[in-house]
Sequence to fold (1067 residues):
Amino acid sequence: MPYLGGEDTVRELRRALSNPNVQSDQLRYRNTILKVIRAMSQGVDVSGLFSDMVKACATVDIVQKKLVYVFLCSYAALNPELSLLVINTLRKDCQDPNPMVRSLALRNMTNLRLPSLMEYVEQPLTAGLRDRAACVRRVAVLGWAKLHNLQPNSEIDAAVVNELYSLLRDPDPVVMVNCLRALEEILKEEGGIAINKPITHHLLNRLKESDVWGQCEVLRILQRYRPQSEDELFDILSLLDASLVSPHPQVMAATLSLFLSLCSGLPAVSLAALERVRGPLLAACGSVSRELRFTALCHIQVSLLLRSLPGLMGAHYKRFFCGYAEPAYIKQRKMQVLVELVNDDNVTMLLDELKGYCTDVNTDTAQAAISAIGRIGRSYSDRCLEILTGLLALKQEHITSAVVQTMRDLVWVCPQCSDTVCLALEGCEETLQDSQGRQALLWLLGVYGEQVSSAPYTLEVFIDGVRSEVSLGVKMELLTTTMRLFLCRPAETQDMLGRLLHYCIEEEPDMCVRDQALLYYRLLHCGIEETQKVLQGRRSDPSLGVLIGRPSEPISQWACSFNTLEPLRQGTVETDSTSRGSPEHVTFEPKPNTDLSDTLNCSQVEKVPSGETGRTPFLARIHTDTHKPLFLASLPFSYPFNKCLCFYMPI
Amino acid sequence: MIHSLFLINHSGDIFLEKHWKSVISRSVCDYFFEAREKAVDPENVPPVLQTPHHYLISIYRGKLFFLSVIQTEVAPLFVIEFLHRVADTIQDYFGECSEGIIKDNIVTVYELLEEMLDNGFPLATESNVLKEMIRPPTILRSVVNTLTGSSNVGDTLPTGQLSNVPWRRAGVKYTNNEAYFDVIEEIDAILDKSGTTVFAEIQGVIEACVRLTGMPDLTLSFMNPRLLDDVSFHPCVRFKRWESERVLSFIPPDGNFTLMNYHVSSQNLVAIPVYVKQSISFFETGPCGRLDITIGPKQTMGKTVENMMVTIHMPKAVLNANLTATQGTYTYDLTTKVLVWDIGKLNPQKLPNLRGSLSTQLAISGNPRYIMTLKLSQLMLVDCLKVSRLDMYGEKYKPFKGVKYLTKAGKFQVRT
Fold:
């Protein structure tokens, strides 16, 4: 961050620091150093004052010491030679009678992070491990980890490692936990600290003494331990039982994670544990901190907690209703949870609730609500379609777009909805502005062209405006739709298809559109049967999951990602895609056990980049494989794009 | 674990950074700024962001972002709780957690951060322990310090760290021994158009102020402990006794602390103290609409409702409001489109009413949203948690004991 007047500030500060009058007055000296730190925190480069600050380090005033250390630790890496001067003062402080001074010196000695100073640091650190005061030992233990981080490739001193192992029995719980942390880092190459039976039981017995952070650490490390017998396992579980309902969400989550990993072979016990954490988990969902609420929701939703144990949260569905003041990311998460919780008893209530969210001020939230209704529509299509049709009457741009996309996705899964959808489509092309929504509308017009009476007229408007069209996706969709409509209503469409093909082949600057148009043109030469075979594939895929009656998934599938960043990470990706309104992401869930996977060649799918940009490589390939045009030609028509590989035509 | 911490203000300036492992360039925050820009509203920034080499976990408190940089896999709840603990500590030390106050006390904040984490691992986070190592500033002390040149840093090792009760220091002495408990309940509720409760729960907290000599051992018992669904205690509470006997038994920390948080979520127990009759309509024909709101008491058991305030978030298209209130005053903020009606005390004989016309642009999008805040003091509802007695063991003297009940509207929303 550029800071105006930075150089002047530094010059002034240097003058003040080297002024003997200031140096002799403790208070003024300290205030000057304070100004240096303040400038540093504002982003001014004060590294030029390093030598003056080194001098200021030799003082009895503990506040001044702390301030200087803050400075030195930030700039030591830039001045390795000058830092050598500080070491002497620090080593002297390590002998100080006051344990606070000793721990401070030791901590900052290791915080300098200069490999050249390692030899001076090792001796005080070794002494620190045997210090009387616990706070010095705490710092010394972690100091070894920092030292190791500086030179990760150096030999590990076996004596130090042994000493650290023995300090696991230190009376101070923080020292014990710090030992665990240090050993984890030092022995990273060997897979972390070795956990055997005596260590496990020692740690478990002392779990209560340490603070919440320490408990989390211990619980995490214990996940590596495998009990030798069932009796031992149950002993451990009963020791852990109290922390399972801990009031601190982080301890609760860590314990549950440990429970699940220990009981991987005993599903009944895991289920009982999940029942027990229901209360604390729900409490975390209603906590004051919105970040905490979000994390808890992610874990409930993405860890498939709901799917493994559908009854777990069912009665509490009202806890997932959104408040107005909540941030968008929580609302969207809650809606995804609500979709999972729907059943015959609460469906009316839930849909009413979701309907309210559809008019949210935040467009992302509104669109998420609409697509949530669409997903419930797979099971309760009539009620949902009623709501969706009602929303079209609002004539709001973003709502109409989301509704049309949702309808398209719904029709794909439930073809019986097509009549209602086709009726609803009339007139909504006027409100649609964004390319995603128009693409969806075009797809629907193409596939159900014979049911929408005004389809050719709508299409004509699109074709007349094709010159000013900017979206590649819309142009491609338009080509396919016109072709399809031509097949079922040739008389009305022939003329405009001709115009469109002519424009696309002769004038269109974009290669992809031109190639596609050429391809259709050649296809039409092959005769109408061939064209029909290629263009009229399946209209729907009923095999895609219906929301109710899905088999419950085993806990082991998500247990390993519980209490990690995994669920949250998936969350961000998902919300991104819904906000873009990309149809592929809304409907396509990569679930390994859906029926779809049988027909789907996964390795090929992975190579397919999704979205609009993904279309280019396909068409490039069409050119090279001209002797197999039919096979490849079928690709761009099929929908949704990610699933297109199921519709290969026989060669 | 936690690699670095950046404090970022409302307008997106980094005003404090602290690194515990190695120095990470400020440019890592660019990913955050990108997300911040995309979210429009600062509240909508997702708390966890993924960048090619780091995870950024942030919390938003008091118009500040606490952004931590993480390099390895961690438990997200752990980091989020820790960041909140940092914010709590700053609040506890300086009375508020804002950019100005942190900049004024930047040195103390650096000292605190240094003590709270070492090599990225939490070290000392208990407020009592920290306060003995780094004393919080008071006006008197800062005057004395300027005169004498002494500092805010304790010269001795905190006794609490060595005692068996880490949250209480040894050798506390008071001339007046007192223990006060505030039972504060917040009703979170969502009411629908017709006034029926869609969702309601009570979030309660017991704040304690204990000034007792020596090492007292307190036992607090309730008349209706079965009411509580989920509870969360200060670490001093013995959890085993709560599970078996439903009493709170604890050696209290010295001074102010939060003894426990709880939820009451069973719907039928939660009584809504007021009702709202509202009608709002926008005419299809012209650029105007009508608004009519009446508020009346319901199930208050003869207690008065105070500090009533109704906040209405109007749709963007509402240009101005021309209303009359029978009680209290109203203001309409033209930029944020928020109508605030400050009612004050609720009079059951003459119900407060707000009515009038709204001028709008032609296109109306979205419904208005109501948020009410209100306060009921000394309220004793059927569902309120009641303290039956407080006993003290371990010390000889007789302390003064007091308890106060307070009900507030937390997130109290009425739908249209």
Summary: Chain A has a mean pLDDT of 77. The radius of gyration of chain A is 33 Å. Chain A is about 65% helix and 0% strand. The longest helix of chain A spans residues 267-285.
